[in-house]
Please model this.
Amino acid sequence: MTRGGLAFAVLRHVLLLAGAAVMLAPFVWMVATSFKPPQEIFAGELSLLPRQWHAVENYHQAFTKVPMLRYLANGLFVTSAIFALQVLVAVPCAYALAKLEFRGRTLLFTLTLFGLLIPAHVPAIPLYIMLWKAGLLNTYAALVVPFVISVFGIFLMRQFFKAIPDELIHAARLDGLSEFAIVWRIMVPAAMPALISFGIFSVVAHWNDYFWPLLVINSRELAPPPLGVAYFRNEEAGHDFGPLMAGAVIITAPLVVAFLFAQRRFIEGMTMTGLK
Amino acid sequence: MAEGPAASVRLDTAAGRRRHSEALAAWGLAGPATFLLFLLLLGPTAAVVVLSATDWQLGAKSLRFVGLGNYAEMFADRVFRQSLANTLLYVAITVPVSVGLGLSAAMLIEARTSLQKFYRTVYFLPVTATLIAMAVVWEFLFHPNVGLVNLLLATVGIAGTHWLNNPSTALFALCAIGIWQSLGFTTVLFLAGLKSVPRDLYDAASVDGAHGAWERFRRVTWPMLGPTLMFVLVIMGIRSFQVFDTVAVLTAGGPAKSTEVLLYTMYTESFHYFRTGYGSAITVVFLVFVLALTLVQVRFLDRRVHYS
Model:
């Protein structure tokens, strides 16, 4: 390597490491604070490790002062229900759009594309009114129902299905499979990578969503994790940051750990369209 | 004699019946999605537009059509104008900074092979982390006395402020959180864009006398990255326009309305004061901005297709 090349290699790492330090700082400080007792936090010292470990107390409080496990279970239940229903609704539609001839196909696809442009906040007011009229506010249904249609899912799966050879479908028809059976027994297994990307996109979006739960949920028992954190923060802010940081660790951990284990899939799923 | 036409008719009807049954199956498969698309997305979007022309308040027995009355009230309202200005300022800061830094980071990462994956992972980490939880962490980092930001500033002799509680800094603090959260997103999109630049273009450029990093960037990378750049700008514009979480949890639009943004104003008008008609009008303005951004991209991409 030339001198200039070496200098650049070093400069590259210096700049990127500085950036990495900024990106990681909130995570590091969050974890470090979740181990500290209040007196050390309020002493305002720049030390990463506590002199006196307070991790057990902080995490214990995060689980007992607020129904943390309940929040996590709510998040798990709501995100799985949403994704399961999205698949049930979007996949057959995507197959029809990709592989079947029918009147109105172009129009339906155009409407799907138009749907991709509408941010989730736009239909919020009428959806709220519908749920209110139906007496479903402050229920799990309120968290799930508005999202059972995923235009992103229809679009993504349709693109993937288009690339699957028609011969596969003809062969299945000759074997006497119905169109419905073709969708679930031929197309879905062949489209697993797309389905996983769809799943990651959906779960991340709804695990992290704060806007919608804030509108429709007002009881702790039904709060998904972001709403739970916000409740916790409102009760704790300014008093004791240890348990609050422990709570933040607990709620960010599932997705962050999943991301570290399946980075490529996560990045694909979250940047595929970049929409929404 | 009479058999021929009859047979062909029968054939026609057989083909027709097959087409018919395919169409029937298709609608059976696409029907539920189509119904839900109208019920949960297109219908409500149309309903917002209609509601924005009424004075309806949630739960009220009657409503009156007021035409563009809500829009007139909105643009005459100081709070709304402030909210729109704040949103535009937030976008105008967050988008160029996260796009600029994302492009720089992507080029630095792509320039050499060592630690590529490590950097990509670290930069992308905030994108996956639950924003509300991280917002609470940032609130602690911005704490006036014991927050990391002011503690670090103190070591170099700068006196910090109460960033989130000071009208002249609060919006910038939220921009910082927004940039931190989306930098990995832009970085990854640019990394993909850089990978798609054909290697031999760089060789060709150096044959043409383009030596040095800057010349290579100016003659090859920048023009080839045009479509990616446009895409990232628009996506980031749309994402930034939707700023809500950090405002709702950390500042509630304050202090002194300095962080009041469109979606937050929409939220308070519609769901605190239950002024549904007025809130719908704000939603429509929000939608118009988002669609306008998309239109910019579509037009740009159209032009590109003509070029190629």
Observations:
- Chain B has a mean pLDDT of 88.
- Chain B is about 75% helix and 0% strand.
